């Protein structure tokens, strides 16, 4: 399995897990909808998600 295929599978699995969790926990879906509408109040949420993504990918790099 080449790296591109593996990355695509990981991304697809991540999307499926997120959709599954939103279906299982409908209040989380409501929170996400409210956050999308009221983005000016939830700018910190975007920063936290960006920081988490950066830590995941930057932490995997070899020195």
Describe this structure in words.
- With 63 residues, this protein is mostly helical.
- It has one domain.
- Helix 1 packs across helix 2.
- The chain is flat and about 40 Å long.
- The model has no long low-confidence stretch (mean pLDDT 84).
Task: Report on the biggest sheet.
Answer: none
Q: What is the CA–CA distance across the termini?
A: 25 Å
What's the helix count? 3
Gross morphology is flat
Classify the oligomer: single chain
Structural class: mainly alpha
Q: Spans of 5+ residues with little confidence (pLDDT < 50)? A: none
Question: Proportion of β residues?
Answer: under 5%
Helix content: over 70%
Summarize the helix and strand pattern as letters.
HHH
Integer tally of domains: 1
What's the overall average pLDDT, rounded?
Answer: 84
Number of beta strands: 0
Rg over alpha carbons: 15 Å
Topology diagram in text:
Elements: H1 3-24, H2 26-37, H3 43-59
Helix pairs in contact: 1-2
Question: What is the structure about, briefly put?
Answer:
By secondary structure, this protein is mainly α. It contains 3 helices and no strands. It has helices spanning 3-24, 26-37, 43-59.
Features:
flat, 63 residues, single chain, 3 helices, mainly alpha
């Amino acid at each position: 399995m080449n790296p591109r295929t593996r990355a695509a599978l990981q991304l697809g699995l991540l999307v499926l897990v997120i959709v599954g969790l939103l279906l299982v926990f409908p209040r989380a879906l409501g929170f996400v909808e409210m956050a999308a509408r009221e983005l000016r109040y939830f700018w910190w949420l975007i920063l936290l998600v960006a920081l988490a993504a950066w830590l995941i990918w930057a932490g995997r790099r070899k020195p």
